[in-house]
Amino acid sequence: MTLRTPSRVSFPAVRAALSLALALAAAPVWAGTLKGSVKMPDAAKSTRLYQGYWRIENGNVPVNNAGGAKLETAVVLENVNGAHPPPPRTVTVEMGGLDAHPRMVISGPGSVLEIKNTGKVRLDMSTPATPSVMPLEQLPPGATRRVKFDAPGGYAVHDAQYPHILISVIIVDSPLYSTVDEKGGFSIAGVPDGHAHLKVWSRGKWAAEQDVETGSQNKEELVVRIAAPGAKDDKEKDAAE
Fold this sequence. Notes:
By secondary structure, this protein is mostly beta strands. The chain contains 2 helices and 16 strands. It has helices at 11-26, 234-240; strands at residues 30-39, 73-78, 90-96, 99-101, 104-107, 111-117, 123-126, 137-139, 144-149, 153-159, 166-171, 177-179, 185-192, 194-202, 205-214, 222-225. The strands form 4 sheets. The chain has a 5-stranded mixed beta sheet with strand order 5-11-10-7-8, with no helix packed on it. It has a 4-stranded antiparallel beta sheet with strand order 12-2-14-15, with no helix packed on it. β3 (90-96) and β4 form a beta hairpin. The chain is globular and about 50 Å long.
């Protein structure tokens, strides 16, 4: 009778296999793409940034007939299991013709907003709602200002003299966000199964939010409605009743 010597077990190989199995078990189950649309009030279709200004082309403020609030609207998912923030980066916004180009910036914590005044007038810019983030400071023509945004959230950068000027800075804690197209549609890829909190940012403020279910079983497209200024949303109506 011949006795066979047991083959040796490679402990490093076993540890590697166990590590791989644990990593796969801990990874979120990616379900696919979350699609939907944002419905805005009729007033949001206007391309006027500030209703108190006349639409007169004077060399500094050209008439803009394209865009509207949809070009300054984003949908963000929060409280997503297993999601990680995008890396910080520096984003340049040029201020010319008393307007920002681009008007909206979306990035991860620690990102730097670089504002270049390419126009002809002095600007006085800040985040009035959070002055500790970006205090009021003059920005002469040709000058550049850099501001770092560390905490996730939405920030509205305004000018003290020209209230129509707006730069929306959205700092996200995950890559699960989307801007909306001209019809208000959005699409967010790589959303895991589970629950998330959806928020809509439009023209310098959070305009709507709701909890949503994400997963392979949810095939219906979301419809998020933004109430007109001064109108009560569904939650306020329910509370009043």
